[in-house]
Design goal:
The chain contains 4 helices and no strands. It has a single domain (8-124), classed as 23S rRNA-intervening sequence (de novo design (two linked rop proteins)). The protein has helices at 12-29, 35-61, 64-90, 96-124.
Length: 125
Amino acid sequence: MTEYVQNFRDLQVWQKAHKLLLSVAEIIDKLPDNPKGRILGQQLLRAASSIGANIAEGFGRRQGKEMEYFFFIAKGSSLETENWLLVLRDMGFLDNKNFLKLEGLCQEVTRMLGAFVHKSQSRRK
């Protein structure tokens, strides 16, 4: 971690994950109020909210394998979020324009987390 990063909110990857969560919340509000819409919305919200939560928890560990573990979990949640967005698009609940925007954000978060874990592992070797 660099010295100017005092809080998990200072991490660019957390900021992007938070932006993704807020965008996902807007989409969920527009889903139909039926069992299918509620279940898909719950799954998407759970996955998207897990990204930032795990980044924050990992940041609290500050270094080493524990921090990497939480960042790795966040990466998996980012991929899961992308999956649920794809499902919503394919089921007609999300237009392609919004899907592409959110997919790009998911992929960016996934890459950033992967690079961070790789760099952290390299430093320990």
